[in-house]
Design goal:
This protein is α+β, with helices and mostly antiparallel strands. It contains 14 helices and 8 strands. Strand 7 and strand 8 form a beta hairpin. Helix 5 runs antiparallel to helix 6 and helix 10 runs antiparallel to helix 11. It is flat, with a radius of gyration of 28 Å.
């Protein structure tokens, strides 16, 4: 069954996809190769003897580039995929998304593919007769792309060995989560509720994880149908097919019109895995998984667990100074049109403090660190968060 997706989610998926940058590089290489070949062979640009080689030498050169680049690309990225699988199995399967969205990895693949395609197009454009003029500028660009691919490969080796280290993975997760906090957890937000009775329940059309909700679209639909809408699941929650996804509320003195189920359901994205777009807890979940795996008897890497808790501490401290996030869209007169639930601060604390205390039972470094984290959070938290924090303070 097709899972519903918002327009913003589709665009974000394209922007964050692994294939976008390589596809742009490949298309640019083909266009450039065709353009240069046409200019040189038809307009007879004043370019000669850039490469002192006849047609047989040009064909041999381009054939070597094509053969070498396609083999080289396949070898490099086959090894890389194996290495990434090993890293994701060691730390957490959810960190593989971080590697797939890495622009250096995408640009490296794009450079290799562009070199291959450019050489292939230039080879096809070579004149059939030895007496005809060669596209020497295109041949020079082919050689330049080979040099660029070599330089990119050297930098790629440095980059991939750096980003696969656990400290860099943890920092990348923290940076991504901080961006999500800045976008979706305001420092000041007035509390709101929708008091009207529920007159319509829109069910989920597919099972999966809620990743985002288009609140602006829901607000337009609510105004069109004279009602208010509550998004029942929070980002990161799992919903089963047919479970309540949206509630339509009656506004005082207004008779709401029924919402079109399919159009409304498509305003909430349901996917097969969590994404960091609107899901603050996804980053904390990744850090918690890394710490838990590091503390398992198979790994027994307490230092990695400590580093993951330290990064989570920074995120929890930022959240402690902000009210619990609630997605709200109001009309100009203050009427609440859309209310989207979000996880509470207590939920975020449970992901790190509660789960790791159970996992790290008997490990003094983690126990002392978690106690220090909770004490620090209690010193800066808003009054609304302190009951959840103080329940986790050490009793002694």
């Amino acid at each position: 069954m097709r899972r519903p997706r918002t327009g913003a989610a589709r665009l974000a998926e394209i922007r964050q996809s692994f294939w976008l940058i390589p596809a742009l590089f490949a298309a640019s290489a083909v266009v450039l190769a065709i353009g240069l070949s046409v200019l040189e062979l038809r307009l007879r640009l004043p370019v000669e003897r850039i490469l002192p080689s006849g047609p047989p030498g040009a064909r041999s050169l381009l054939s070597s580039i094509i053969t070498a680049m396609i083999s080289f690309t396949a070898l490099v990225f086959s090894i890389t995929v194996v290495a990434l699988q090993l890293a994701s199995s060691q730390y957490s399967p959810r960190v593989l998304r971080t590697f797939l969205q890495d622009r250096v990895i995408q640009s490296t693949l794009g450079t290799f593919v562009a070199t291959f395609l450019f050489a292939m197009v230039v080879l096809a454009a070579l004149p059939a007769r030895d007496s005809d003029r060669l596209p020497e500028l295109s041949l020079a660009v082919s050689m330049s792309l080979v040099l660029a691919s070599t330089a990119m490969f050297i930098y790629y080796l440095h980059h991939i060995t750096t980003v696969m280290r656990v400290s860099h993975i943890i920092v990348a997760i923290g940076a991504q989560t901080r961006r999500t906090i800045e976008r979706h957890v305001p420092e000041h937000e007035e509390p709101a509720e929708i008091a009207g009775e529920v007159v319509q329940v829109v069910p989920a059309t597919a099972a999966g994880l809620v990743t985002s909700a288009d609140l602006a679209l829901l607000a337009r639909l609510a105004r069109e149908h004279d009602c208010a809408i509550t998004v029942v699941p929070a980002p990161g929650d799992f919903v089963v097919a047919g479970a309540p996804l949206l509630h339509c509320h009656r506004l005082p003195g207004v008779g709401p019109r029924p919402l079109p189920d399919e159009r409304v359901a498509n305003s909430v994205t349901i996917d097969v895995e969590r994404t960091p777009g609107q899901d603050v807890g996804f980053g904390l979940r990744q850090l918690g998984d890394i710490a838990a795996r590091a503390l398992s008897p198979a790994s027994n890497d307490v230092t990695t667990a400590v580093r993951a808790v330290q990064e989570a501490h920074d995120l929890l401290r930022r959240l402690a100074t902000r009210p619990d996030p609630v997605g709200i869209v109001r009309d100009d007169d203050g009427t609440v049109r859309v209310l989207a639930n979000r996880p509470t601060y207590d939920t975020y604390l449970a992901m790190i403090v509660d789960e790791l205390r159970n996992t790290a039972d008997g490990e003094p470094r983690i126990s002392r660190l978690l106690d220090a984290v909770v004490a620090d959070l209690d010193s800066v938290a808003l009054p609304a968060h302190r009951p959840a924090i103080r329940r986790r303070l050490p009793t002694s």
